[in-house]
Specification:
The protein has 350 residues and is of the alpha/beta class. The chain folds into three domains: 57-124, Trypsin Inhibitor V, Chain A, CATH 3.30.10; 140-202, 2-Layer Sandwich (Trypsin Inhibitor V, Chain A), CATH 3.30.10; 220-348, Immunoglobulin-like (Sandwich), CATH 2.60.40. Helices cover 22% and strands 32% of the residues. Strands 6, 7, 8 and 9 form a four-stranded mixed beta sheet that branches. The protein has a four-stranded antiparallel beta sheet with strand order 15-14-17-18. The chain starts with a helix and ends with a strand.
Amino acid sequence: MIMIDILNKIKSIFPNKLDDPDTRYFKITIFLIIGLLGSMVLIGVIVFFTNLKGHEKIIVPNVTTTETNKMDIIDAIIKLQDKYLGVKIQEKHSSQYARGIVIEQKPRPGAVVKAGRRVTLTVSKGPVINKLGDYIGKGLGWLRLELRSKFSSDDKVLIEIREPVIYQYSDTIEKDRIIEQKPAPDTPIYENEVTYIDLVVSKGPRGQEVRAGHYVGKNYVDVMRMLESNNIPFVFELSTDTQNAKEGMVVTQTPEADEEITRLVPVQLTIAPVVTLEEDEVFDIFQYIVEKYPIPVDLKVIAQYQGESKVLVSIKHEGGKISFPYRVKSGTELIVYIMDMEQDRYLIEK
């Protein structure tokens, strides 16, 4: 009986057919207000806990491969997901790491981020090549450029051309084309081992070789122009004998006149120093090391003085040392350009 009375009292609280219209309207209004307030409280609680989770601080774990820990992409994803972190994957070729190995991550290990943050993983696609190509008939310059493009600066180079390259005459194969290669095409390349290629390159038919000119006894400016016109690299030095030679004249040369020239090896010239100068003039040897390039590139050195410019050297160069005499006014800037891009500039003062 008591339970029935309690239920009847609770039932009378809610709107029912026995209520007069005013009472019924009042009850409906009250319950609507209570329902609205309840909904607002529920939404607030949900938003609060959602934001609480979203602002949770997470320390990014280390999922990058190290010398002592090899981390593949599957293990990395599981490790990040355990920390409520998302994953974004990007791939790149690597000669140092096998396919599927994580080689870099952003943010870095130890960084503090919000839960749900995506970590970008750089994953190895493996070596860009896994066997030697067939290079016979290809140009030597092309092959140097091709090999250089295969390996990024942070990769371990897996293929190198053994120097010096062997040259031989050929009546049938164009100059600078590869005649032979060892190892043979399709030889496997191993991940942690450098493969050296021995090449035999065509010099073209006999009679077309480049030979050293007669430089001894000529002024250094004339000799430089002769070498530039044939794109032959050169290295000058000053003679210590200032008594027996005319100023600025070449006194020795290597190779000797009419000897065959290998384009990769610079002609070495010794000249008598110029000592008869104006008061504001400077004479010396300019020395510069050019970065090694797979093919000859345009090298230019310009002397700039009080807004006027003069080209001192303009030649195609594959890299290495270049040195040449200059005679300029004190305060001149010597500017080095490679492929029309300024590399360095030097102020010359007496």
